[in-house]
Write a structure and sequence with these properties.
The structure is a single chain. This protein is mainly alpha-helical. The protein contains four helices and no strands. The longest helix is centred in the N-terminal third of the chain and has 25 residues. The radius of gyration is 13 Å and the shape is globular. The N and C termini lie close together (about 10 Å). The model has no long low-confidence stretch (mean pLDDT about 95).
Length: about 100
């Protein structure tokens, strides 16, 4: 699971300025967050229930706004919020 978390953090460390860059970045973040979610579910779904739910919320937002239009500011922000909360959860629970 640690490897999936490191990969997610590496992908999330980048930023974006243009809609195309933001589209690419969010698609990568969603992909690595899905891998992280699978790792959390495999390790201990009860202990990781909150970040698993947040990752799921990000996926739902991506579906709601359209996965091909995540570069738009409002759409990006809607998907970004639960992903940021997921990352913050790990910051608040070191060693998990």
């Amino acid at each position: 699971m640690q490897e999936a978390l490191v990969q997610y953090a590496a992908v999330s460390a980048g930023g974006c300025e243009t809609a195309d860059e933001c589209q690419y970045l969010m698609a990568r973040r969603l992909g690595t967050s899905e891998s992280l979610s699978l790792a959390m579910k495999a390790k201990d779904p009860a202990a990781y229930a909150e970040p698993i739910q947040l990752q799921s919320a990000a996926e739902q937002q991506a579906d709601r706004y359209g996965r091909l239009s995540l570069g738009a500011k409002g759409n990006y922000a809607a998907v970004d919020q639960p992903l940021r909360q997921m990352a913050e959860w790990f910051g608040e629970h070191p060693g998990m």
